[in-house]
Amino acid sequence: MRFLRRLRLPLFVSGVYALLYLPIVVLIIFSFNGSTDSHTWGGWTLRWFAELFRTPEIWVVVKHSLIVAFSAMALSLVFGVMIVCSLKERLDRFASLFYIPILVPEIILAVGFLYLFSFLKVPLGLQTLIVAHTLLGLAFSVPLLHARLAEMNAYSVEASLDLGATKWQTFLYVVLPFLRPALVSVGSLAWILSFDDFLIAFFCAGSSSQTLPLYIYSRVHVGVTPVINALSTFTLLVSCSLVILYSVLRVRLKEII
Amino acid sequence: MRRIKQAFLYRLTYFLATPAFLWEIVFLCIPFLFIMSASVYLQGRGFSLAAYKLILTGAHMRIIVRSLVLALFTAFCCLVVAYPVAYFIAFRARSWKNALVLLLTLPFWVNFLVHVYAWFFILERNGIFNKILLALGIISEPLHMMNTLFAVAIVMFQVYLPFMILPVYLFFEKFDTRLLEASLDLGASWRQTFWRVLVPLTMAGAQLGFFLVLGMSFGDYVTPQLMSGGKTLFVGTVISDYFIINRSFSLGSAFTCISAVVLIGLMAISLGLFKLVAKGAK
Question: What CATH fold (topology level) applies to the domain A55-256?
Answer without folding.
Answer: MetI-like fold (1.10.3720)
